[in-house]
Amino acid sequence: MDVSALKRDLDGLKLDDNPAIVQQKSRDFYWYSPVLKQQLDHVTGDLIVTPKTEAELIRVLAACHRHGVPVTPRGSGTGNYGQAMPLSGGVVLNLAEMNEIKSVAPGRVVTGPGAVLADIDKATRAHSGQELRLSPSTYNTASIGGFIAGGSGGVGSINFGGLRDFGNVLRLRVVTMEAEPKALELTGEDLHKVTHAYGTNGIITEVEMPLTAAYDWVDVIVGFDAFMDAARYGNALACQDGILTKLITPIAAPVPQLYFKRHQKFFREGQSICVVMVAQHGVDAFLAFTRLAGGEVIFNAATATPEEKKGLPPAYELAWNHTTLRALRVDPDITYLQSLYPFPNQLALVEKMDAMFPGEVFSHLEFVRLDGNITCFGLPLVKFTTEARLDEIVRLHEDNGCPIFNPHRYTLEEGGMKQTDAVQLAFKRETDPQGLLNPGKMIAWENPDYDYRSGRTFLFKGLQKAG
Ligand SMILES: Cc1cc2nc3c(=O)[nH]c(=O)nc-3n(C[C@H](O)[C@H](O)[C@H](O)COP(=O)(O)OP(=O)(O)OC[C@H]3O[C@@H](n4cnc5c(N)ncnc54)[C@H](O)[C@@H]3O)c2cc1C
């Protein structure tokens, strides 16, 4: 790999080869996993390139193609499976400066890939009282391109499902990795080739996302003496058709008491909680429902004093992968899993799994709308001992009918969110014939004998038609 020759070809673009900076920008939140931490700690790229326009980006890809240099795209680097880490070195393509918010219209927004989610909402709220349908809990830092290429859903999934669902991404402009890179405009089912593909089959240079009405969201925390009461409450609240919520997150004791440092003053010992974001106009109805359901409101941002609210993070930063982050800050031996409790047996499955690993696995649920039904994902915290035990906990979930999307694997297939198949592979051959985009992340590409018909559950399903 002749990086000096590449640098000469990229003269005039924003480059950085300071080893400390390159290493920093070659990392994401892979260290969430003790397994990935060990496997990926040494990984670093050779050069950071920061294009400001699609024309500059095309210049970078053409030059890298000419020199046979791998390219790993990066938004904000908050992915937590090593998605944005350059396993074969080469260029880390920093998209943070392609962050223009280009247009806003009723129901849609067009932006560059590097636009930060919170900045998009700020612009769409100011323009016409609209906001994105879905955001990861890294709302304040993550880029829209990184969310589409590396994320799955999050805050808002209780109403709209996930990024895998038709209609939650409207259009993507994607540049290919060829001698003369092409810009493709993808819509409809073609979008599924690129969502959650870790940038292995094209660089997203423009996104068009659907918008929904923006409301003032009120953070509320409801307390329960038993975790299953919090879980049943979360399920029942999610099924209330008239109460508009954006987040419903039951979390088992002692997670809140041990790890939610800034909120600790609100929790009683042994209390499990449900963290909720509810639209301001729905607060009265929500409080009435909660009272009847036997929940105790222990924090309500609408009525809390400025003193009580001082220094508190927003509710969504207690939820989704932020729950794990807060635990890791206190106890570095904590890790986590990602599970699905399939409808209609979600509560029975939650109860069974919650009882199976006392003192070792702590339940954390996220209620979502999935294929038209209310159910929940789990992001349980796990007290890590050995990799073998972690694998056993995974197996026990799967044996009991709870699919695991394994966050301790860096390939698309082993992670289990995205199913690759012949259609995906054909698209990769078309867009990246030399296999230079984020190498090492798609097993189907690396190993021609790989059998992708595993029969397991994938969140982002394959594209091949059945039969
Ligand atoms: C504390 C915490 C909370 C999180 N909460 C959630 C959550 O609620 N929901 C969720 O889905 N995820 C969550 N995540 C994972 C991650 O934050 C999200 O996936 C996030 O949206 C990634 O955005 P990013 O800009 O940081 O992407 P990066 O980490 O920079 O990139 C993610 C992937 O996309 C690729 N990529 C980036 N930009 C492009 C582009 N323009 N074209 C092609 N490929 C590209 C990268 O190569 C990488 O494979 C969380 C992570 C952390 C650490």
Return the CATH topology of the largest domain: Vanillyl-alcohol Oxidase, Chain A, domain 3
E-strand count: 20
Q: Nearest-angstrom radius of gyration? A: 22 Å
Q: Please give the alpha-carbon distance between the first and last residues.
A: 44 Å
Helix content: 25-40%
Briefly note the structural class of the backbone: alpha+beta
Q: Could you give me the name of the CATH homologous superfamily of the largest domain?
A: FAD-linked oxidase, cap domain/gating helix
Residue ranges: pLDDT <50 for 5 or more in a row?
A: none
Apparent shape: globular
Number of helices: 18
What small molecules accompany the polymer chains?
Answer: flavin-adenine dinucleotide
CATH architecture of the largest domain: 3-Layer(aba) Sandwich
User: Can you tell me the number of structural domains?
Assistant: 3
What would you say this structure looks like, in words?
With 467 residues, this protein is α+β, with helices and mostly antiparallel strands. It folds into three domains: 92 residues, Uridine Diphospho-n-acetylenolpyruvylglucosamine Reductase, domain 2 (2-Layer Sandwich); 113 residues, Uridine Diphospho-n-acetylenolpyruvylglucosamine Reductase, domain 3, CATH 3.30.465.10; 183 residues, FAD-linked oxidase, cap domain/gating helix (Vanillyl-alcohol Oxidase, Chain A, domain 3), CATH 3.40.462.40. 31% of the residues lie in helices and 21% in strands. The protein contains 18 helices and 20 strands. Strands 5, 6, 7, 8, 9 and 10 form a six-stranded antiparallel β-sheet that branches. It starts with a helix and ends in a 21-residue tail after the last helix. It binds flavin-adenine dinucleotide. Flavin-adenine dinucleotide binds next to strand 3, helix 6, strand 10 and helix 13. Flavin-adenine dinucleotide (FAD) binds next to strand 3, helix 6, strand 10 and helix 13.
